[in-house]
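User: Hey, quick favor. My workstation is busy. Could you predict this chain's structure for me?
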Amino acid sequence: MNGPSPPNAQPVFRIRPARRGDAEAIKSLLGELGYPKGGDAATVNWLISHPEMELFVAGDALDKAIGVISLSHRPQLRVQGRIATIDELVVTAAWRRRGVGRALVKRAIERAKVLSCKRIELVTHRRRDEVPRAFYEACGLVEANVAVFRLAEIEPK
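Assistant: No problem, here it is.
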């Protein structure tokens, strides 16, 4: 926990592994990210128990979920080791710009290091002109010069 807050200090929140009971809150958070169908209980439970996934929740002083980050990790040939990807990152609007997102990214990076990942990437589905570059750079990430292609036939409707 971040301890008691003196006046003008950052609000109290903590980062913890997601639990099965977090599904509704995660679904709501993903709705804020633009994915209203994401985060159903079955998928949250699947991610929580998946050996190559990490799901962390930021909880307020009452442990209400105010942010979530998902981290996938797997072996990859070209890096000759494990790679980690931050797949989703969202903080509820009322808690943005208070250090929650940065704390979630920090936890994901710490976990990737424990897993001996050789690379950490963040995937965002925003247009390039909408990406919060200053935030990502403040977290230590740099923009990569890559292109992503998808097979539209299997995209969820």
